């Protein structure tokens, strides 16, 4: 078992003929992901990165039985791409694209909630179930299969943590980057609930950052709904208020969303909080004994 | 992106929100002429992108055109929280009976726009939320339906507004909502929305923040950007597609990825240093971008050491190494550099930097400790030279 992606994932790549799309399709296929199709409007009938290309997601789904989509199209076309995938019958949409206007994402997310389609992202590295499927842009080789579920708002910081876990022989059940935007498809609470129900996951690492109050809500969820231990880390303790720290969602506004508040929220419910990234693996190792 | 008060109010006016008559001056003479055209009392308001203008003396009344010219002359050139006042808005002075607040924010938890009104106008809404939260009325806006008329009425009645003003208030709420959506704002507020002695509503002050991600479809708004919103270094970084925020520490940080960049800043603090900046070179950065990033970091005279933390994925360590070497050829420096390269092409990257006299580290913790030590070494050496 694992969550969201696995051996049964049949992936369609939206924007497969772009530079990023083609490169990462090869990387995903090499990792063992079952990439069944790509789309690129006007280029249907051809091939890219070793898979057949279709004009529309609907055609791709009908021809190949794709059940998951990953999106590499530019920000101004990405909301449309998410809606196209949802309408075509895909059940999980992973949106890598960064820079999508927030009002677009409010409407897209509201529609996805109505039709029962899950989105991961946008502005995220994707989802990987080590040894089964990589649906994203993360370096596959740093991961190894095991009992630790990882969920994070970040990209490379997640790689840093996963790399440290793997070096300590602490494999991962699934690692998910939920994305750094203010409005995202799948949040900490969704992923924590999935990990709680996943028999392979024995403990969870949660990597948060400044901005919003999702970490505070996650702390409450852990306190009331989780039996599995969670280790947390929050990036941005030295971030100044009112400044966006790279991610659109990483900003302290009106004094809210500070790292100190989030750390306090976790500590208040007994969640261990690492003081720096390398300490996460130490804390997980102690639990794994 | 932040808009000035005068820009925000003009946008509101385009959406039917009543604002005071007025215009912008860049010289005392212009201010006097505007006041003469308006007639009567005016208020001269400094246009800078920070809060607390009133307390700093940047908002003042004038009884006649000559006084308006004098007051504007005093305000122009003032320094308010590090920003020089270059423009003064000269507005007709409103006859204020009461002040209310009306604003729209993006509620991340609810994933909806939320409109808020309060009878406590003229002070920051965060302050009201802390001290008198019961005075704030909120409504949640459906993204497909938009603001409904009943929601405007709920706000008006909720803050105890005089009933004969309900209709006008609802029109203003609708205008504010349309402005928010039409401009792709991330915040829009009218504070205060004034009830005048004559029983009219008037948006006396306004603020709009724009969603940077949506500026591609609002060229006319993007052109309103005030260069003072960012430091010169931040502007230079944006031109190169880098995400940079200047801080006041001594350890320059160059990292790929926003989360890792924040974690790198934090760990320098943990080991007794302080970060000089946030800098994310982004995914797949090429050598020229890395070189630009290093030039920006080194342009900060406070920087006593530079810490490179690269976790290669899409970003290749050898590309980053090439960029570092390129920048060092252009800008030779005595500032010590600590590099930590892991991931894609890390061996090639390290080999390239072997000749560059860099301190290397295997882990982030080790790199941070070495950077803090190196920064202290240089500042001690600097002091020693000063004493000689």
Structure description:
- The complex is a heterodimer of chains A (289) and B (388).
- In chain A, helix 6 (188-197) runs parallel beside helix 7 and helix 7 (214-225) packs parallel to helix 8 (259-268).
- Chain A has helices spanning 19-31, 57-64, 78-87, 102-115, 156-167, 188-197, 214-225, 259-268, 277-288; strands at residues 11-14, 35-39, 47-48, 51-54, 68-71, 92-95, 118-120, 126-129, 133-136, 145-152, 172-177, 203-209, 230-235, 272-273.
- In chain A, strands 3-4-2-1-5-6-7 form a seven-stranded mixed beta sheet, with helices on both faces. In chain A, strands 9-8-11-10-12-13-14 form a seven-stranded mixed beta sheet, with helices on both faces.
- Chain A is an alpha/beta fold and 289 residues long.
- With 388 residues, chain B is of the alpha+beta class.
- Helix content of chain B is 39%, strand content 25%.
- Chain B has 13 helices and 18 strands.
- Chain B has helices at 5-14, 28-38, 65-75, 125-131, 149-158, 166-183, 219-222, 232-239, 258-270, 287-298, 317-330, 346-353, 364-387, and strands at residues 22-25, 42-46, 59-62, 79-80, 83-84, 88-92, 96-107, 112-118, 136-141, 185-196, 201-203, 206-210, 243-246, 251-255, 277-280, 305-312, 337-343, 359-360.
- In chain B, strands 7, 8, 9, 10, 11 and 12 form a six-stranded antiparallel beta sheet that branches. A four-stranded antiparallel beta sheet of chain B has the order 1-6-2-3, with helices on one face. In chain B, strands 14-16-17-18 form a four-stranded parallel beta sheet, sandwiched between helices.
- At the A-B interface, helix 4 and helix 5 of A face helix 4 and helix 9 of B.
